[in-house]
Amino acid sequence: MSYPRPALNEALERSDVVHDANTIADAVKEMAAHIADEYRDDVQAPLFITVMNGGMPFAADLAMALGDEGVDVEFEYLHATRYRGETSGGARLAWLHRPQTALRDRRVLLVDDILDEGHTMLAVKRWCEDQGAADVRIAVAAVKLHDRCAEGIEADFVGLEVPDAYVFGYGMDYHEQGRNLRAIYALRN
Length: 189
Ligand SMILES: O=P(O)(O)OC[C@H]1O[C@H](OP(=O)(O)OP(=O)(O)O)[C@H](O)[C@@H]1O
Ligand code: HPA
Hints:
InterPro entries: HGPRT (IPR050408), PRTase-like (IPR029057), PRTase_dom (IPR000836)
Protein name: Hypoxanthine-guanine phosphoribosyltransferase
Mean pLDDT: 95
Distance between the termini: 21 Å
Structural class: alpha/beta
Number of domains: 1
Order of helices and strands: HEHEHEEEHEEEE
Largest sheet: 6 strands, mixed
Strand order of the largest sheet: 4-3-2-5-6-7
GO molecular function: glycosyltransferase activity
Pfam family, one: Pribosyltran
Radius of gyration: 16 Å
Strand content: 25-35%
Organism: Lysobacter soyae
Bound molecules: 1-O-pyrophosphono-5-O-phosphono-alpha-D-ribofuranose, hypoxanthine
CATH class: Alpha Beta
Low-confidence stretches: none
Number of strands: 9
CATH topology: Rossmann fold
């Protein structure tokens, strides 16, 4: 993250709301119903791995909505970043924290804010598979609409679609700011 950073207020002035808080809440509830169907008959709770930092608000909402559906989850987290507070991603994914729970034979649900070019999820999913996970599913609050997504990766559960612009809010940052906004905003180019 380079300083001084661009101001969040100025970014908000040149942004549009793409999904408001109510729309996001409805999408999370609907996703939770689908995800619950996937796991409710399992003897062991899925390992619910939040991809920090961006995945945190969505993961919290989704976990509670799964609880409402009567489905328990075991919490874990990882931190892998390739944007590092910037608005375009680097080639290298930096692992800042790996899950400490053994993944062997576990069903894993990876939970993140956005699937954009997919490089982060591709690497994280492969790592989980290499650890011997029984199966790895991906839930994201939003998928960005473009044709630059890495081959071989897609989300199993998607809340909302966002346009091909830099988006922030609901976990997603604008230069490490704005993650705690309840709506999702897109910068006008
Ligand atoms: O599909 P991709 O193009 O790979 O981008 C998606 C990833 O980028 C963001 O993380 P970031 O690297 O910004 O780390 P952060 O969550 O700590 O901000 C976001 O939270 C996803 O994990
Ligand atoms: O558009 C985005 N916004 C915030 N974080 C992101 N990580 C990948 N794409 C984005």
